[in-house]
């Protein structure tokens, strides 16, 4: 491919997948674009979050540069219809007369790892992040998928927690902690435990009204709940502050030699493939040592996720697992989960050059779109 010699474009990634050219627009957070054709993919630099006119203009300029190589056969974008990246992808597709292909966020996460590792699938995919728009219209973020090319199946997910106050709960971990207490029948503790928060006195009443607290299966929000319950980060001032504080506290405890076993009985896997972490979170509510609690959380979470995957391995017979999503930036979690799965003889695929988070998402979108086009071509033949 002849790409413009601009610094925002990285060295091409080889793909074990031939197909027509596609342009992928990434998502909202840590936006980056991808153009794939002739068996290689090129990623743009990360634009950052598309919450400013400058970032959106930057994304548009990168898209124009990637179009210099020719009109793509299709344009891929996130399933969420209100992202600037999704809207611009659809506008451009209509203008060029090519199909716009929406790709579910976590399908794209897993696909990006498969693409980087040149694995065609099928494979189990674990997608762990803060939020992604699900096919049911709810907020996903703790997903166990079966991925094969253009298709995926949601085999399981984390048991949802309510977002007390909607999107505000993603910025205020104490609200996720309060949701855990409420679900555990301990709503009476919320006002006293979080007395420094002006809304604490009324939050139990808000949580009583499920329609005002949309559910999420996000592992990112589970991290927030743990940090809030341990008092490590009631309110975030910067992105991922709670998760970083939790990981730092756990690392310091483990580095001091505070080795801990996984908490027995701290998770439940039901017959529908849902992983319920409430027992673990409730135990953290009574943990007096925040660092030890953070370590218990990490060690037990890795064991719970491994157990969850192994249940599906036994059911599906698949022995390849792709680990993806922004929560995999957490080195304690990624290393322990990967090691646990490899100890059971599974092939574990992880992000290589690209981020496991949203900055690498466009590669997965492009991979899925090429599979869509190839499948259509085969059907037409």
Automatic annotation (TrEMBL):
Pfam families, per database record: HypF_C, HypF_C_2
InterPro entries xref list: Carbamoyltrans_HypF-like, HypF_C, HypF_C_2
Start and end residues of each Carbamoyltransferase Kae1-like domain: 125-365
Keyword Signal: yes
Key words of the record: Signal
Sequence ranges assigned to domain HypF Kae1-like in this UniProt record: 20-116
Coiled coil location: none
Signal peptide: 1-24
Alphabetical list of Gene3D superfamilies matching this protein: 3.30.420.360, 3.30.420.40
Family recorded in the similarity comment: Belongs to the carbamoyltransferase HypF family.
Protein name: Carbamoyltransferase HypF
Upper lineage: Bacteria, Pseudomonadati, Pseudomonadota, Betaproteobacteria, Rhodocyclales
